[in-house]
Write the structure tokens for this entry.
Amino acid sequence: MTPARFQQLLNRFGPTRILVIGDLILDQFVWGKVSRISPEAPVPVVEVVRENAYPGGAANVARNLREFSKNVAVMGLVGADAGAEQLANLLAEEHINLDCVQRDPTFQTIVKTRIIAKHQQVVRVDRERRTRLTEPQMERALAQLDAMLPQLDAIIIEDYGKGLITQSFADAITSLAHRHAKLLAVDPNPNNPLQWNGASVMKPNRAEAFASAAKPLTEPVEPVENDEALFEVGEILLQKWNAETLLITLGEQGMMLFQRGEKKPFHTPTRAKEVFDVSGAGDTAIALFTLALCAGAAPDEAADVSNHASGIVVGKLGTATVTPEEISRSFEEKTAI
């Protein structure tokens, strides 16, 4: 894709209206330095220098979208606790619509705390209890979705396997998306093996794709065009999920796009210069792929945009986002090579 074509698509991102449904997570980062080993146990002592918090999980998908569109909303469940307040404040600061976020005093807001020293993660502490929506909560969520859909361009389901996305909830969302003829993009979780049927986009990573296809994970092959196991998995999942497009993210190998019909799989190589942190890279990938499709990009163009964005975000520490200027510069640098 040329820089001019990306700018053409970028100009159409602003009015796009997208709802992200999924597990809402608060990502906390504790940054420090290590100068000694604890006398109490053979573990490093981390002296805290600073702390940050960011929206994570489905909330991070919304945060990535918000860099490009003014019309982003999230749907999910939080508790009535300090984590929920902090997450709500962070999302509100970015002007992300929270009307579809339900608060349940019996639910514990999901919080992931990462301790990082010298750019290396020392340990991660997770606070969570896998909880499903109650019947009244699901009915309310679906009623809100049905009312919103005429004004939406797309729905993204981001499943982190924390309990929100159940089979009945997924089926109801898919049915509503079909009824309103809206683009539905899904980032599935093999630890929550649901029967997806007829989504516009499915976006697993390589390991998730092999698990979902019930195939043993194999080592990546170079060049990727010779990875027969990957191509077999792609064809299996296209049929299994009855998806229009399947985008498999491949880490340092970039992305492989499979499409329904006779179209040849499309590979876009990685654009990453350096990899510091892969946290949230999948969130960036599905956000930009969906945005580009809504803006009128062909699937291979959308994969290219998504790949450039993901290549930028893995070069940042923490749960990061990418800006329009950074992607534009990435396309310009590609053309200059």
The domain at 3-25+55-114+126-336 is CATH 3.40.1190.20 (UDP-N-acetylmuramoyl-L-alanine:D-glutamate ligase). Residues 4 and 331 are 9 Å apart (CA to CA). The mean pLDDT is 93.
